[in-house]
């Protein structure tokens, strides 16, 4: 039995051409019902899956490079995951022309048990020039990355993304399940450097949770938020919220926008986690406690008292970082790591 969730908060009547900052800067998720309902892509999808496929195909660039298609056999039931011992994946990836992928999805529309097919995070402007002229959310100065996700009935395991995310359902229906960032320990996350799509994922099968193997997931369920999204709906997923995405129709398309509320020079905190595993985790307990205080002082509670006793020029990396200082710091780190 699929997990139960509390309904995600909803907003209605918003204009995608002028989404308020209170929405785009929100630190809690929400569904924006019907926000892109008048996009031509959505109108085509409401006619039929075939009309939606034709609409997407009409923008394909003639000289576009192949797309990466993630494909799994029918018996995985759309769940892209690991094998039994987490040593490999239950799918393969292949490069194919976009029109071939779309024709394959069209072929399997009437099949009750098709192979799972997913074109994940494909940059719209690279493969579908012109699409955004009629189907786009203006993001102002946020410089968001716009991607399109195309597939059939697939299940993408719960994972986190560092950027904020506005995900717009433009064909088919999707079920989204979200958990607050603090549910990390209750979601039973798999390997962090060997992942199906770049981000660590929950090992729990949301279609059939095994609470004997994953007992703390019962606590995670008490914090779960969910919604079913129709064409034209969008969901705002703030940074680091866990999210599980499931396509519910034989043809589904999602357009999403990722952006960060930080300067460009900032690296992903995942790099810091990897380095901490290398340098901190296996220290003797009393040394780990010492480094906990060091991180508290310099990172998590950094303020004027951290380096206020020095002039600004003397603070160097303890002062305000910018492009030049970040570049210098990155070079120093690479030099230390490559010793």
From TrEMBL:
Residues 117-274 form the JmjC domain. This is Cupin-like domain-containing protein. It comes from the Bacteria. PANTHER family: HYPOXIA-INDUCIBLE FACTOR 1 ALPHA INHIBITOR-RELATED, HYPOXIA-INDUCIBLE FACTOR 1-ALPHA INHIBITOR. It comes from Pseudoxanthomonas indica. Pfam families: Cupin_8 (PF13621).
